[in-house]
From TrEMBL:
This is L-cysteine:1D-myo-inositol 2-amino-2-deoxy-alpha-D-glucopyranoside ligase. PANTHER family: CYSTEINE--TRNA LIGASE, CYTOPLASMIC, CYSTEINYL-TRNA SYNTHETASE. It comes from the Bacteria. Residues 39-334 form the tRNA synthetases class I catalytic domain. The gene is mshC. Belongs to the class-I aminoacyl-tRNA synthetase family. MshC subfamily. Monomer. InterPro entries: Cys-tRNA/MSH_ligase (IPR024909), Mycothiol_ligase_MshC (IPR017812), Rossmann-like_a/b/a_fold (IPR014729), tRNA-synt_1_cat_dom (IPR032678). Zn(2+) binds at residues 43, 228, 253.
């Protein structure tokens, strides 16, 4: 699958800082030490509806990770998937009388447009579940051959008991796991399962549903977690730096992914850091396609909202916080964008070097974007109130805001 065009990332004077980031698995901040090529996998959309502000907030967090790494002169090897076949997509296509593949294609195209408008840097490999099937099948076969999988009526399940590390991403107890499994695509009540939370690796073909040749597995389609494991291992290998997504992916998705990879390779963890963004709510409830309480990025753009203002609205919240989208949040971002644009529109201003360092330090400290915005605010106020004589300082600020925060002034 093709991704979307990259916006340019201006080079900045001085030295970038290494990222310290909160890791869900160890429960604390860790100092990442990627090699010259940093490796990140970010879980992509299930394309049955348009990109909403919650999605955008999560992708914004991982875009910042990339930007911090690029500022340290590293290359970034970024992989993202598209879950272009799964129950919710098929159900929505069915409900609306649409062809599931056409729906997926159309919503993925819109996602690309939204990401481009928001200046999110594209993945190097953008891979759909369907195109990953030839790589998924041998992994499921291997899990079965290793005794880590079992069959119920043609469906193949992963046995969580095969992984001694199971539970070490989410640290949840069995009751909480069972609850979340039921909420998030699992089938804990199906008779015959060894453990209620065991997830499906391969679903045997159902009448009226798409299916693919699964070799010795028979016709069917892949489970959700093995999809991301197959794509990540194929393009990044074990022990990559960050696996990212929203906090609703901690369990079961990232826990199961780590388990599949451990059973396949004998290594743990698949990612050095498991990084999760908070949930964005609307009217007091998590924004979600299934509930329909959504603010779409494309709808805001259609209403003439500047994508840079949307981006500033996202950046005003720490990525790990749960927060609520309101008209005021957007209005504050529009106002801030106006101030910043006015401040960089003059040829000279207050010195910019210290500001660049403050933005760097804020982001290196667990992606503290609100602190970075506050630093730019202070510079803009100085500029507004007393100006400055540093020729070119506004240009440096503008480049730093673009390179490190993805906001074009
Ligand atoms: N295709 C899978 C991942 S492999 C999936 O979860 N797709 S999704 O379309 O449901 O979500 C895409 C990303 O947006 C995920 O990282 C998810 O955690 C995140 N996300 C979904 N809703 C919200 C929300 N309300 N706030 C913040 N992030 C969200
Ligand atoms: Zn995923």
């Amino acid at each position: 699958m093709h991704a979307w065009p990259a916006s340019e990332v201006p080079a900045l004077p001085g030295q970038g800082r290494d990222l310290r980031i909160h890791d869900t698995a160890t429960g604390g901040p860790i100092a990442l030490d990627p090699g010259p090529v940093a490796r990140i996998y970010v879980c992509g959309i299930t394309p049955y509806d348009a990109t909403h502000i919650g999605h955008a907030a999560t992708y914004n967090a991982f875009d910042l990770v990339q930007r911090v790494w690029l500022d340290t002169k590293r290359q970034v090897h970024y992989v993202q998937n598209v879950t272009d076949v799964d129950d919710p997509l098929l159900e929505r296509a069915d409900r609306d009388g649409l062809d599931w593949a056409a729906l997926a294609e159309q919503e993925t195209a819109l996602f690309r447009e939204d990401m481009t408008a928001l200046r999110m840097l594209p993945p190097r490999h953008y891979i759909g579940a369907v195109e990953a099937i030839p790589g998924i099948v041998p992994l499921v076969e291997r899990l079965r051959d290793l005794g880590a999988a079992y069959e119920i009526d043609g469906d193949i399940y992963f046995s969580v008991e095969s992984d001694p590390h199971f539970g070490q991403v989410s640290h949840l107890d069995a009751a909480a796991m069972r609850l979340l499994s039921a909420e998030r695509g699992g089938d804990p009540d199906r008779p015959g399962k060894k453990n209620p939370v065991d997830p499906m690796l391969w679903m045997a073909a159902r009448d009226g549903e798409p299916s693919w040749d699964g070799g010795s597995l028979g016709r069917g389609r892949p489970g959700w977690h093995i999809e991301c494991v197959a794509i990540a291992l194929d393009h990044l290998g074990m022990g990559f730096d960050v696996q990212g997504g929203g906090s609703d992916l901690v369990f079961p998705h990232h826990e199961m992914g780590a388990s599949h990879a451990q059973a396949l390779t004998g290594e743990f963890p698949m990612a050095k850091a498991y990084v999760h963004a908070g949930m964005v709510a609307l009217h007091g409830e998590k924004m979600s396609k299934s509930k329909g309480n959504l603010v779409f990025v494309s709808a805001l753009r259609r209403d003439g909202v500047d994508p840079a203002a949307i981006r500033l609205a996202l950046l005003a919240h720490h990525y790990r916080a749960d927060w609520e989208w309101t008209d005021q949040v957007l209005q504050d971002a529009v106002t801030r964008l106006g101030h910043w644009r006015a401040a960089v529109s003059r040829p000279d201003g207050p010195p910019a070097e210290a500001l660049v360092e403050e933005i760097r330090e804020a982001l290196a400290n667990d992606l503290d974007a609100p602190a970075a915005l506050a630093a730019v605010d202070r510079w803009a106020v100085l500029q507004e109130e007393s100006g400055g004589t540093d020729t070119g300082a506004p240009g440096v600020v503008s480049r730093a805001v673009d390179a490190l925060l993805g906001v074009a002034l």
